Each structure stands twice: as C-alpha cells, then as structure tokens.
Amino acid sequence: MIKKRFSKPPLALRGMRDILPKEQIYWDKIRKTLPKVAKDFGFKRIDTPLLEQMELFKRTVGEGTDIVEKEMYTFITKGKEKVALRPEFTASIVRAFLENGMDRWPKPVKIYSMGPLFRYERPQEGRYRQHHQLDFEIFGRKDPLVDAQIILVGAYLLKKLGITKRTKILISSIGCLECRKPYIKKLVEYFKNHKSGLCKDCKNRLKKNPLRILDCKEAACEPITNKAPKLIDSLCQECHNHFKKTLSYLEEVNLKYEIDPSLVRGLDYYNRTVFEIVARDKEGNNKYALLGGGRYDGLAEILGGKQIPAIGFGSGIERIVTELMQNQKKEKVKEKKRVFIVGFGELGKKKAFQLFNDLLSSGINLRESLGRDSIKAQLKVADKEKARLALIIGQKEALDETVILRDMQIGSQEIIPRDKILKQVKKMLRK
Ligand code: HAM
After folding, report:
1. pLDDT in tens, 121-139
2. Would the CB of 127 count as within 6 Å of ligand 1?
3. In 247, 256, 285, 374, which residue has its Cα 20 to 30 A from 423's Cα atom?
C-alpha cells in the first residue's frame, strides 16, 4: 500500500520542544548535580508513571485550579479508565508513598524525582506544554525547621548548578483551614465590590473557589487581585508562630528572603508556608519562578491515608537551562584528547573498523568518519574535530598488520605494529 506523504515535514506540537545537542551539556550538568544534592540532604529517588488516574489530580491539585480545569491532558483508555498525563509530581509521589507503605518508614522520609510533566498552558518564554521538573519532598515532620530546610535544599541546588546571581527567595504563609474561613469571607466581600472588572472565569470562581482568583493570569484581574486583602494578615496564632519560626531558621542559615503576601501558588493542597525562588532580569524585575513549593499537611489524608505533614518543591529544568545558557558562564566540555581512526580501500576500512571496535573500551576518546572513502576527506574531519592523533590503515597496513600513527599537531607519522598500537597511543596521549 502506498503511504500518503506529508506535504511538508511535520513540526513538534505547540508548546513542546526538542532538547537539541547544544543544550544537552546543561541537562547533563543537572542530571549529574541532582543525585549529589539529594545525597547531601539524604533524599532517595522515586520514579512514578507518566499516567495516573485523572481523579488523583482533581482531588489534590483541585477542581477549581487552572491546572485541573484547563491544562490537564486527559483521555479515556481502551479499558474505559479516565487517566491524565501527570501535570505535577506531588500528587503522584504521595499516591506512591501510601501505596508502597512508605508512611511506615522512619520519619522524615525524603524523596526526590526528575522527569517530564504536561500542562496544556498558553506557551511563552519559560512556559511549555511539556516541561521537566526536579522535585523534592519531605514527609513526616511539621516542625518549621523543615520548612527552612526544604528552602535551603532549593537554594543549595541552584548554587550547585551555578545559578548564584539574580535570584530571590519569596515566601509567605497561606495559613490553615481555620484562618482561611474568616479570610475567604473578607475576600469575597472585596471581590464582590470589584466584580465588574473581573474576567469571566473569575466571576465564576467567586462562587466556586474565590481563592483561585488570586492566581488568575489575566491582565484585567491583576490590578484588582494586587489590592485584595492578604491571607498573611489573617493568620491564626499557631500559623503565625510557625511562619515566624520558619523565617528565623532561614536567617540562621543566612538565606535572604522577601515576604511576598501575594504568593498564593496555583495548587489547592498547600497550607502554611509557600515559597518560590525567582529569577530576575538585569533591571531587577522578576522573570519567572525557578522553583516553587510549600507545605501540604492534608494531602495524604485526602488520598485516604493518615494525616502526614509534608513539604516540598518543584523546579523547572527548562528555566534553569535558560538561566545557565543566558547568564552564566558557558559550560566547557572537558573533552579528552581525540584519536581519529582512518581507513581506506576495502581491506583498510575493514581493519580500521575492527581497530575502532578493539579500542572502544580502552577509555580513549575515539572518533571516525569511516563512511567516507578518501583518506583526504577523513583527515579533514579529523582536523575539524581537533583530533590529537590519527590511526590510519590502508591496503598495505592491513596486509602488514600495522597502523600509521599520525601526530595531527606536527604532522609527523610512524608505522607501528598493530599489536603495539594501544600502548603507543597511550604513551603519546600522556605527552
Ligand atoms: P509549580 O509551581 O506548578 O509547582 O511548578 C514548579 C516549578 O515548575 C515552577 O516554579 C517552574 O519552575 C516550573 N514550571 C511549572 N510549569 C511550567 C511550564 N509550563 N513550563 C516550564 N516550567 C514550568 C508544582 O508543580 C508543585 N508540585 C511543586 C511542589 C512540590 N509543591 C510541593 N512539592
């Protein structure tokens, strides 16, 4: 059957992107740094599936949130299950935590993860429909020291990645259910007086979930939400003390912070401490959050477990990479000196291919361009790749069991018996 051709090559979906080779050295750096940071604080890795029951996110992230209401990738499977591509880590990790009896582990349980997440958002700089996060969660402690500790993990992570300039820690408290009741009353009253200026969604939210109006991204709502009463001014005594202690612990470890009462975060499960570390531009304006998180002491209970205090954060890898590429020093790849294998003529190419295979596990940084026929073309590539040595095998060398060893810096050549070549190459590379 003749397949129907695309009239032009297909493109990646809107808001989704390829991570190209030039970016990969930054991703490698993150992949290498992550387990080191995790080890320094005693976190253990977990990987959860990309797909979960849709209900998991509805009940935790919250029905009225943008993530659940507008941004989830959902579908019904062949077995008629309603599933969602995970839009965030926390709900999945708490699900896995309960499912695998981790609530019986000695506390605190510290868990981290890394991987892709999916949100059908309006794409813009630093906002993608598939993005990746590093995620850290601590279970089993309600002490405010742990709130300061998780923020320290975030700051330390960014420092270890080399993001030291133009970041700022923003922190607030959104209290507990007790402090929220009178606050929500005040808020509804305020928004009712400004109803005409709110977007259509927020008018609906006013009935269903007025707190969500505070994180509306519509420009029309912003001036109204900016002036709305702040939850931080309505904290009960216990939440107030918790917040004050968190701040004092931050001061103990010299972490400078700014209290930002407008920090509400776009997920329903938080209580008490919420925080972000934001990247700023040269003028000092906040660009976007490099990481964000908070306490979620009620989440395990919502999922049918016991009450387990917990706190964590997620950090957007694409944003970290952008920062590394834009502002920080270019990552230098510390490449070992290269050895280029050259083969020409039918037999020469065969023996060169064999030599390449034999040297693969020797630790030598090998390159070749054996798919080309002429020796000249292959040496040109060797030059381009800044090879230190070339090992050349033609018809004659193949028959004599020898290899021409060429010093690419000075252009000198010598003939070496095939069985002595590894020793000789190693000797030359030491120079
Ligand atoms: P979040 O604030 O939705 O929190 O996301 C955490 C971080 O992921 C953000 O600060 C940002 O760096 C990055 N991020 C989020 N959405 C996008 C996007 N569309 N494109 C690029 N980067 C993005 C959470 O997801 C919570 N689960 C964090 C948490 C963990 N709270 C407690 N534990």
Report:
1. 999 989 999 999 999 999 9
2. yes
3. 374
- Residue 358, domain extent: 338-426
Encode pLDDT of 155-172 as tens digits. 999 999 999 889 999 999
User: What atom of ligand 1 comes closest to residue 90's alpha carbon?
Assistant: 27
313 and 366 both lie in a single domain: no
User: Whats the size of the chain, residue-wise?
Assistant: 431
Domains held by the chain: number: 2
- Same domain, yes or no: 398 and 306: no
Structural domain includes residue 373 = yes
Mutation test residue for ligand 1: of 71, 131, 268, 308, the one with most atoms within 8 Å of CB: 131
User: Quick count: other Cβ atoms within 10 Å of Cβ 331?
Assistant: 13
Model confidence, pTM: 0.89
Atom number of ligand 1 nearest to Cα 91: 27
For residue 318, the model assigns a pLDDT of 97
Asked if residue 343 has its Cβ within 6 Å of ligand 1, the reply is: no
